[in-house]
Amino acid sequence: MKKQGFTLIELMVVIVIMGILAAVAVPKLFGMIAKSKASEVGPAAGEYVKLQDAFIAENGDYMGNFTSIGYEMQSTTTFTYASAITAQTVALASTNDAWKATSNVALNNCASGSKWSLALAKSSTGNGASWTASYTPASGATEADCSVLTPRFKDLTRN
Fold first, then answer.
1. Which of 89, 91, 126, 134 has the highest count of CB atoms within 10 angstroms of its CB?
2. pTM of the predicted model as reported, rounded to 2 decimal places
3. What is the DSSP string of the chain?
């Protein structure tokens, strides 16, 4: 009589191998999910910089709030976007906090309430503005915990 099928040992080996693969893949998957959620910050900040630069080019030494520059980024479940500029136009000073994204959820080790921000200052050459991008981690997180999610965010810094 010819017996077909797998032995119990063979099935257990396959289950152990699948368990090892799952143990390696699951943490990587959660890291990628957090990074994909944080990926909206870079384009949102880049859009703001582009619109604010165009506004400053048209209006001289004045910057505008979200409405006056045409910025329509809506807050999401992951981030809340805000501007420190409340008036329609404000004179461009030495340093102005201009744009901020605050995380509404924890993203891996980057705690909820961490902030990505852009500060705007009058350019040292006298034309336009210079930008400084920065992170402010919430309690329990470090700048490295948040910067790993958006590694190109600091590239928005421009003198």
1. 134
2. 0.78
3. ----S--HHHHHHHHHHHHHHHHHHHHHHHHHHHHHHHTTHHHHHHHHHHHHHHHHHHHSSEEE-HHHHT--PPP-SSEEEEES--SSEEE--S-EEEEEEEESS-BTTB-TT-EEEEEEEE-TTSSSEEEEEEEEPPTT--HHHHHTTSTTGGGG-B-
